């Protein structure tokens, strides 16, 4: 009898990547075994989950409904299994965790003390940088990534979501005026990111589908959010950054946000990511559970009610 959980994982991976053989590779299965799992799942449910052809794999209506259900249920099941496994096996050794520089320094490093108290035999090696690391090639156990995920070799747990925020120092708004709509930003000194697909050096994107594009320019461009933050606090210009970067400055009144009447832009999730090709030892299980719990209980950067610059009547 085929393992039903494996069958569910084959189904969700195949739906994600659009290929049974590609899904099989991420789970270390043969294509024929992956197909058997899907056949068994369809037989168990009594419905077709995919429309299959030699060139295309597409979800049926039943498959879409089943995928939505599994996207909710499988992470919860994995979390329960991780909790039970961590009780059976003592967590020890060096855990290599990578995170974006600004996020890791602000929100991960302060948590390591509590993690150490709970798991004193685990040594955390925390790497901070803003490039996308290759977990498999570079030997990281876990990494934190912001924005949409595309690598089908990896699995993830969402820690939190995060909005993008337009803001500047009060002195800048007083000097340059407050924009009313996104298009007004073309008349402002917009400090762009060299690594962001949303807030780049010559174009900023708005709307829930990022389909509203505004051409921008400014006196500074940088590959790190903290550098742009420091310049904005000093009054140089406008920044468009994730809320977790600007939250403290908004709280202190060093920056003021504007809404611009546009649909809120979500960063695309903050995810804890790991490779499907490796074993999942206790040290990784306990860190995964610890971080998921930490961000579930408290989102430290929600500033929607703090320091929003009002439009003039």
UniProtKB/TrEMBL annotation:
Family membership noted in the UniProt record: Belongs to the LysR transcriptional regulatory family.
Coiled-coil blocks: 70-97
Gene Ontology annotations of biological process type: DNA-templated transcription
Gene3D superfamilies per UniProt: 3.40.190.290, Winged helix-like DNA-binding domain superfamily/Winged helix DNA-binding domain (1.10.10.10)
Keyword terms: Coiled coil, DNA-binding, Repressor, Transcription, Transcription regulation
GO-annotated molecular function: DNA-binding transcription factor activity; sequence-specific DNA binding
Annotated protein name in UniProt: LysR family transcriptional regulator
CDD domains registered for this protein in UniProt: PBP2_CrgA_like
Origin species: Yersinia canariae
All residue ranges annotated as the HTH lysR-type domain in the record: 3-60
InterPro entries per record: LysR-type_TF_proteobact-type (IPR058163), LysR_HTH_N (IPR000847), LysR_subst-bd (IPR005119), WH-like_DNA-bd_sf (IPR036388), WH_DNA-bd_sf (IPR036390)
């Amino acid at each position: 009898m085929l393992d039903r959980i494996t069958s569910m994982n084959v189904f969700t991976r195949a739906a994600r990547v659009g290929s049974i053989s590609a899904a099989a590779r991420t789970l270390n299965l043969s294509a024929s075994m992956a197909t058997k799992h899907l056949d068994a799942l369809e037989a168990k449910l009594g419905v077709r989950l995919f429309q299959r052809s030699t060139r295309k794999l597409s979800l049926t209506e039943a498959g879409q409904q089943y995928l939505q259900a599994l996207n909710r249920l499988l992470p919860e099941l994995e979390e329960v299994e991780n909790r039970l496994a961590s009780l059976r096996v003592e967590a020890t050794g060096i855990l290599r965790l990578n995170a974006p520089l600004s996020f890791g320094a602000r929100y991960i490093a302060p948590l390591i003390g509590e993690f150490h108290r709970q798991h004193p035999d685990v040594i955390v090696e925390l790497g901070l940088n803003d490039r996308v690391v290759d977990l498999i090639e570079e030997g990281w156990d876990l990494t934190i990534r912001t924005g949409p995920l595309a690598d089908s070799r990896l699995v993830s747990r969402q820690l939190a979501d995060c909005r993008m925020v337009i803001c500047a120092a009060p002195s800048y708004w007083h000097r340059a005026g407050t924009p009313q709509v996104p298009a007004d930003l073309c008349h402002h000194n917009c400090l762009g990111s060299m690594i962001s697909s949303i807030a780049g050096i010559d174009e900023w994107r708005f709307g829930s589908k990022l389909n509203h594009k505004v051409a921008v320019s400014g006196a500074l461009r940088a590959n790190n959010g903290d550098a742009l933050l420091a310049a904005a606090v000093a009054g140089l210009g406008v920044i468009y950054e994730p809320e977790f970067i600007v939250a403290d400055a908004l709280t202190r009144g060093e920056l003021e946000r504007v809404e611009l009447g546009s649909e809120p832009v979500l960063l695309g999730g903050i995810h804890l990511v790991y490779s499907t090709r490796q074993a999942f030892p206790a040290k990784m299980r306990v860190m995964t559970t610890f971080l998921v719990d930490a961000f579930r209980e408290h989102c430290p950067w929600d500033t929607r009610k703090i320091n929003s610059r009002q439009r003039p009547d």
